[in-house]
Design goal:
mainly alpha
């Protein structure tokens, strides 16, 4: 889905690298589904990718940030317990 917003191979490679690289297409799909304008989505995706690169450098051996990524409808997350 990143291909909808970006066309250069180097940019796509950079966006898909980092701690959240495997989730970037999902972020792009989410922005598209919500109806974000292309220019806004590109800015947000670039900022997420920058954070992803930072997190990858800082994590050095720690588990990835997958717990911070919101669950997709096909992959539901944990449910809240009323208490």
């Amino acid at each position: 889905m990143l291909d909808f917003y970006f066309s250069y191979r180097g940019v796509l490679k950079r966006l898909r690298s980092g701690a959240l690289g495997g989730e970037m297409d999902r972020f792009a799909e989410h922005f598209f589904t919500l109806g974000y304008k292309r220019a806004s989505a590109k800015i947000y995706l670039s900022r997420i990718a920058r954070f992803s690169q930072f997190a990858a450098r800082r994590s050095s051996g720690r588990p990835p940030l997958s717990g911070l990524v919101p669950p997709s409808p096909s992959r539901p997350g944990p449910r809240a317990v009323d208490g």
